[in-house]
Specification:
Blueprint (H helix, E strand, L loop, with lengths): L21 E2 L5 H13 L5 H13 L4 E2 L1 E2 L16 E2 L1 H20 L14 E5 L3 H14 L8 E5 L2 E3 L2 E2 L10 H7 L2 H10 L7 E3 L1 H31 L10 H19 L3 H22 L1 H7 L1 H22 L4 H11 L29 H15 L2
Parallel strand pairs: 5-6, 7-9
Antiparallel strand pairs: 1-2, 3-4, 7-8
Helix pairs in contact: 1-2, 2-4, 3-4, 6-7, 7-9, 7-11, 8-9, 8-11, 9-11, 10-11, 11-12
Length: about 375
C-alpha cells in the first residue's frame, strides 16, 4: 500500500507497471564467495571493499535490475526494448571490456591479454562503487566465461572540503581548473596523494595544502636539490666532483627502490610517497652533518665525496618521484643530465650542472585566508 505522500517532496507517489531486465546475481553466490576469499588471502583489495563484499555475501546476493525507464542513456540492445536504458553502473563497468575491444580494433591488436586469469588489473574508485566493481562486474565476466577478473580493488574513502561534505551542486568544492591555473602541478599531485583517503576519510584543507607545499616540497625536497647544485656551481664551476658515494646512503637508496616499487604495485601510493620523503629527510640530514661548506676548506677530498653522494641522491630521488611529481623530476633531469627513466638506481649522469633554478616557489601563507574566503563566497552565491 502506497503512503499518502512522499517524505522527500510531499507529492503523492505514482505507481506504474513496468518490465525490467535483471542480472541473476544470486546464481553467482558461491563463485563470488570463492573469489572474494581468494582476494582476502592474497591481500589485494582495500579493507573497505573486503568488508562490504563479505557483508553482501553473508546476507545472500539478490538479483539486480540492470535496466531503467529513462529518456537518456544507453539503450537496451534487445529488439522491442530499445526505449529502456541500461543502468549506468552496468554499462559503465561493461565499458571496460568494450573499450579494450575498441582499442584492439583501432590498433590492429588482440585484447585477449587484458582478460587472462593471470593478468593484473587495478580498479580505482570511490567506496560507493565497490559493489559494482567487486561483485557485479566479476559476475558479468563469469557469465561470459572471461577469466580476467579484477585482481586489485582500489577503493578510496571520502574527501571533505574544510571539514564539510563536498557538494558540487552547492559549489562547496575545489575545482581542478582553478587549482591548475594557480599552483604548480606537482603541488597538486603531491597533496592529493599524501592526503589521499586510502584507509579513512580525508579533508582538503587550504592550510594543509599551503603548509605542505612550503614545508615538504619547497623546504625539504626543493631545498636539498637547490643547495646541493648551487654549491657545485659556486665552488666547482658547475662540474660535479668525482667522489665515492657513501655506502650507507647507497644501501638506503636501494631499499627505497624496493619498498617504493612494492608499495606502488600494492596500490599503497600514499605510503610509497611517504617513504621517498623519508629518504629526502635523510638526505638533508646527511648534507647538514657533512657540512660541505667547511669541508671544501678543511678536507677538500671529503667534500667531493659528500657532493658526489648528494648528486647521487638527487638523481635517484628524481627518478623515484617521477611517478608522483613528473614535472619537477623532469626539471632535475635537465639540470644534471639524467638519461631516460628506469626502475633501478641511477649511477651515472652528466658531469656538468646546468640551468639550476628552484624547483618550487614559496606560497604566501596569506593565500590560505584568501582561498577559504573565495570558497565561502562561491558557495553563498548558490
Amino acid at each position: 500500500m502506497l503512503e499518502k505522500s512522499c517524505k522527500l517532496c510531499g507529492d503523492t507517489p505514482i505507481a506504474k507497471r513496468t518490465e525490467h531486465f535483471y542480472i541473476a546475481l544470486s546464481a553467482f553466490q558461491q563463485k563470488l564467495e570463492d573469489y572474494v576469499h581468494e582476494a582476502s588471502e592474497q591481500v589485494r583489495w582495500r579493507d573497505n571493499a573486503l568488508q562490504l563484499c563479505e557483508r553482501y555475501l553473508n546476507e545472500g546476493l539478490h538479483d539486480r535490475a540492470v535496466s531503467r525507464d529513462l529518456p537518456n542513456g544507453v539503450p537496451v540492445p534487445v529488439e522491442g526494448y530499445e526505449e529502456k536504458k541500461l543502468y549506468v553502473w552496468i554499462e559503465a563497468v561493461a565499458g571496460y571490456y568494450s573499450a579494450s575491444q575498441l582499442w584492439a580494433q583501432q590498433n590492429g591488436k588482440d585484447d585477449e591479454p587484458f582478460w587472462h586469469r593471470d593478468t593484473r588489473s587495478y580498479y580505482v574508485h570511490g567506496k560507493d562503487n565497490i559493489p559494482f566493481h567487486a561483485l557485479i562486474w566479476p559476475a558479468m565476466l563469469m557469465g561470459l566465461n572471461i577469466a580476467g577478473l579484477p585482481t586489485h580493488i582500489v577503493s578510496n574513502e571520502y574527501v571533505t572540503i574544510e571539514k564539510r561534505k563536498l557538494s558540487t551542486s552547492q559549489n562547496w568544492a575545489v575545482w581542478l581548473p582553478d587549482l591548475i591555473g594557480k599552483y604548480h602541478p606537482d603541488t597538486i599531485r603531491y597533496f592529493l596523494t599524501i592526503n589521499a583517503p586510502e584507509q579513512r576519510d580525508a579533508d582538503f584543507s587550504w592550510r594543509e595544502f599551503i603548509y605542505r607545499h612550503n614545508g615538504e616540497l619547497l623546504g625539504a625536497y626543493g631545498n636539498f636539490v637547490n643547495r646541493t647544485l648551487k654549491f657545485i656551481v659556486k665552488s666547482y664551476e658547475g662540474v660535479i666532483p668525482e667522489g665515492t658515494v657513501d655506502q650507507q646512503i647507497e644501501r638506503d637508496v636501494f631499499d627505497c627502490y624496493r619498498q617504493t616499487s612494492e608499495l606502488i604495485e600494492a596500490a599503497h601510493f600514499k605510503q610509497a610517497l611517504e617513504g621517498v620523503f623519508a629518504l629526502i629527510r635523510k638526505a638533508n640530514k646527511y648534507f647538514d652533518t657533512e657540512q660541505p661548506w667547511l669541508q671544501i676548506k678543511e678536507a677538500p677530498d671529503d667534500c667531493k665525496h659528500t657532493l658526489a653522494t648528494c648528486t647521487y641522491l638527487i638523481a635517484n630521488l628524481a627518478q623515484l618521484l617521477h611517478p608522483f611529481l613528473p614535472f619537477s623530476s623532469e626539471a632535475v633531469k635537465d639540470m644534471i643530465g639524467l638519461s631516460d627513466w628506469t626502475w633501478y638506481p641511477v649511477g651515472t649522469y652528466a658531469t656538468t650542472v646546468k640551468h639550476v633554478k628552484p624547483l618550487f616557489e614559496r606560497i604566501d601563507v596569506d593565500t590560505i585566508e584568501r582561498e577559504v574566503e573565495a570558497l565561502n563566497r562561491r558557495a553563498n552565491m548558490q
